[in-house]
């Protein structure tokens, strides 16, 4: 089984709102991806409560349209604390979403994010967090979190299920693997367009196979290809492709 | 026959590599069923005297020139490149020239670049232009190396109609002047597909539609990059078997006259 832990459906609007999603599912079919864990992100960020509610409503309709092969992450801007917490509860309890997606509106260490972290612990759902560590500023991303930030949060919230987003799409992955090694409760997804030779083997060696989850983040052949290429055991490959995410989702799949 | 147009040998300054010796790369190629590869020196990317990388490459390839086909890397802003270029072509058996303007401190549009393109063309060497060596987000504190602009590449192609160019590591080409203005450009450029999408955006299909399958080349970026993603793209590319075979190796073989 293959579960893509980091994917995106379309944003609301347009004459054919699901045109892009059909292409995603076509790719998933060809690459033998069974489930896609998706969020719908507002094109205008930082998102207002109206905008993130519209995205989540659209994702819910998308899941109804295509079936439960798509699993939903509730996207919120944690700066709107009260609205974000209410939206997460609504999406998990009423829509059956499987977790929460946080982008880069706030660093994960910002106290403003705490209510979101706490509702995720209460509801026992994972957070997939956009992340990266670069040596040059990323335009428009002053608040991007890195693995060290996430490690600090997990010291405060050891029960939190937190997934570092795209090892291979957020800058210096060697730095990131070191920081992940030092944050033993932090999961990481393998997505991103970067396909540097050896990154998966190094991640298994430094982070441990049980904390890695397969993902593409829309770079489809990159996501699958690097997992197929990696010189690891078939049981390790299976854990990354699906076993670890299934465990994170508490047997939901 | 699978012939990879985008490969390297040797040590890379920013990251430890595997499979970067001749024996190591050949073993990887055997596992991935790649018959031949056009290889350049990874050291030459950052050595001040890039030509010393060519010498190292030639020694590393040794007797494996039948499968590891050498490509020169030279810096036209560095003294003595004219002698080095001729030596690479005439004595070291190098069949192409790779230029790395932003790594070597000059611009694609600089006069020195035009001079080495003309000299390589005299020697019948195609010019390889990597848009980038690695993702800019990963560059360390010592390096601030922007990607080559597709507009500059198009201008260079237009300025050198007798030369032959291979664009490596490009993305967005199917929606750039290199595709949209193809009628007014010379048909002297080929495009390697390792960074382009075969799903969702389907850039490889758009490129084949714009330029024809005969001008698209298989390349992987090995051993800096995994080979499998590029192979997966070709596996799922919906073109005829003849076109796929041409992309996998026939086009490059023809281009190099091998």
Note down, in words, how this protein is organized:
The complex is a heterodimer of chains A (253) and B (258). Chain A is α/β, with parallel strands linked by helices and 253 residues long. Chain A has a single domain, classed as TIM Barrel. Chain A has nine helices and eight strands. Chain A has an eight-stranded parallel sheet. Chain A is globular. In chain B, strand 5, helix 4 and strand 6 form a beta-alpha-beta unit. Helix content of chain B is 36%, strand content 13%. Chain B has a six-stranded parallel sheet. A three-stranded parallel sheet of chain B has the order 1-2-3. At the A-B interface, helix 1 and helix 8 of A face helix 8 of B.
Question: Could you give the topology of this structure?
Answer:
The complex is a heterodimer of chains A (253) and B (258).
Chain A: E1 3-8, H1 19-30, E2 35-39, H2 49-66, E3 70-75, H3 81-93, E4 99-102, H4 114-123, E5 127-129, H5 147-156, E6 162-164, H6 173-181, E7 187-189, H7 199-207, E8 212-213, H8 220-229, H9 234-248
Helix pairs in contact in A: 2-3, 3-4, 6-7
Chain B: E1 3-9, H1 22-32, E2 36-41, H2 50-61, E3 68-70, E4 72-73, H3 81-90, E5 97-98, H4 111-122, E6 127-130, H5 150-159, E7 165-168, H6 177-180, E8 189-192, H7 203-211, E9 216-217, H8 228-235, H9 241-256
Parallel strand pairs in B: 1-2, 2-3, 4-5, 5-6, 6-7, 7-8, 8-9
What structural category arises from helix and sheet content of chain B?
A: alpha/beta
Indicate the radius of gyration of chain A in whole angstroms. Answer: 17 Å
CATH overall fold name of chain B:
TIM Barrel
Helix content of chain B: 25-40%
* CATH fold-level assignment of chain A: TIM Barrel
- What structural class should be given to the helix and strand makeup of chain A? alpha/beta
* Count of runs of 4 or more consecutive helical residues of chain B: 9
Instruction: State the low-pLDDT regions of chain A, or none.
Output: none
Overall pLDDT confidence of chain B:
97
Beta-strand content estimate of chain B: 5-15%
Number of strands of chain A: 8
Count of separate structural domains of chain A: 1
Biggest interface found: A-B, 35 and 33 residues
**CATH class group of chain B:** Alpha Beta
